[in-house]
[RNA-polymerase]-subunit kinase (Oryza sativa subsp. indica), 557 residues
Amino acid sequence: MGCVHGRPSAPSPDHPQQPDPPPPPAVAAEKAAAEEEEEEEEEEKKPPKPARRERRARSSRSAAEAARLGLGGSFANRARGEQVAAGWPAWLSAVVGEAIDGWTPRRADSFEKIDKIGQGTYSNVYKARDTATGKIVALKKVRFDNLEPESVRFMAREILILRRLHHPNVVKLEGLVTSRMSCSLYLVFEYMEHDLAGLAASPDISFTEPQVKCYMHQLLSGLEHCHNNGVLHRDIKGSNLLLDNNGMLKIADFGLASLFDPNKNQPMTSRVVTLWYRPPELLLGSTDYGVGVDLWSAGCILAELLAGRPIMPGRTEVEQLHKIFKLCGSPTEEYWKKSKLPHATIFKPQQPYKRRISETYKDFPQSALRLIETLLAMDPADRLTATSALRSDFFTTEPYACEPSSLPAYPPSKEMDAKRRDEEARRLRAAGGRTNDGAKKTKTRDRPRAVPAPEANAELQINIDKRRLVTHANAKSKSEKFPPPHQDGAVSLVSTNHMDPLYEPQDPSSFSTVFTQEKSSVPTWSGPLADLSAVGKQKWKHKFGRSSKQPSTARAR
Ligand SMILES: Nc1ncnc2c1ncn2[C@@H]1O[C@H](COP(=O)(O)OP(=O)(O)OP(=O)(O)O)[C@@H](O)[C@H]1O
């Protein structure tokens, strides 16, 4: 390994995906991450030792191998030499020269870290000050193994994709921080104060219809730009929709994004998109999909903003599909036949499910319901595109979307802030509900977290081999690691979706697969355990006039 340790791993073909192990206590995880971070920083400051020299030698061997394999693309040796002279590390230039073409690296000491503001599976994100300009930025330190060309290429895909996008509703990559001797890389972004998941989870915030329209218009405009530029985001969810204090929404985290060409049939992995926002075709194993996957997620977000809570919070892939069928109905016979989805025989219910969106959300504004109906179409061919969604009567009829600048300036509400609140609440409960000053705490709330996309680079033999060595204990269900663009689903694992024998859907008989009739506590969860119905009750606020009850999906366990 290079500079990075403890990469997330995935199920092996021998051991198809198991339920995620329960997470370690969040506080311990944070502490471990902080320690890891400190170690990494200390490591970066050290002069090269013999062991480090050996690692660098291996790095150049890797680079040579990468070049041999064509991973460096058409990037000429001379251009690489120039990049190294400009301060880029050789391992980066050798493998992904195109991603850094025309740029000069910024030095780490030209930024002053202020605070850690986010932690993803592949990154730690810091608020920092550019010491030259005083500007506040976000520094995303991406985790990858600089000795593995594949890993570098996977990381660089995010950079290449971000560099081709220029839109007010897509986060802007402002630069990269590294140095010739460094084995790490920071992405520099404009700083965004909030994310939509944090705001939506805040007990004190509920959105009006013009505000929901304003956020959705920005989300769909950003998506339209991505899709028109051949980019599928593949992880649209609230925590990846960043907001600044001027009400601007920007799509962020292109770590799972992929380039696509609608006119070419390029198989892609189905193991993308965070579970709650994952469309049925991916759960059914499709490798031939398109912009519809992002539009499904956008539909989930729209319904979530109006409902005040996630609409289909599944804990496993089986449960997710079951929730989808219960709300959106099961696919038509024609779709099952036409789509030839790999997992159709396993997941096809014996009895068709009726579509219940308009019944469940009868209190939503009619134009919103119509848009949700088309975004949550079971057949992706029936889903609206971002462009057509922007023309829907949701946006063209009153009340119109408000101006972003008229949105309230919210207090800090990052998903990370919400997590901290949850941890504090748990700590208080453990301490008998008393605050530090001994006062009784009156209002606390845990919120469930979406299960991120599963490990999805299963298709790469090198990773399959490696995974055989990984114990389940450190297996963390997370998105793909480093599939090559356009081929990321070329070879799929034997079982990408899995039947969770511990989970009993409400009406298991309706699935053609036999479920073990054994009740269990929550077997698969990426975040704190929470009583979803309790969360729903607290958050559920009636915002559109008539009285309402919780949507039935909240009760689906
Ligand atoms: N430009 C930014 N400004 C402010 N905060 C940011 C910015 N970019 C990212 N963050 C924060 O850091 C978090 C993690 O960032 P990001 O989602 O890009 O990383 P990741 O490792 O891909 O995460 P994940 O595991 O969720 O996919 C975000 O949810 C957000 O709260």
Summary: The longest strand covers residues 111-119. The pocket of adenosine-5'-triphosphate is lined by residues 117-118, 120-123, 125, 138, 140, 171, 189-192, 195, 239-240, 242, 252-253, 255, 414-416, 452 (CB under 6 Å). Residues 223 and 386 are 6 Å apart (CA to CA).
